[in-house]
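User: Quick sanity check before I run a bigger batch. Here is a single chain. Can you write out its predicted 3D structure?
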Amino acid sequence: MALEFEAWLLEQQSRKDLIGDLARSLATREANQYSPKRKADEHKSWADIIIRSDEPAHIAIFNDAWQEYLTAKQAADDHLT
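Assistant: Done. Predicted structure follows.
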């Protein structure tokens, strides 16, 4: 099973950095409000959510988080093969 961004982000809540702040901020919101409806393009779905958030600073943090997520996802995929 492939690692999804939402699951990865929720695991980052204990971090004491901006990505941890982002994870905690999104975790405190209504799950339905932040859950992407489409699975076709996970990045676009999450980027749309972040852009609509009330924190413009989250955009840059999301970009950093997405890059870390891609690295973690690749490592998880490599571990499965």
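The helical segments are 5-11, 18-27, 31-34, 42-52, 58-80.

User: Great, the batch can go ahead then.
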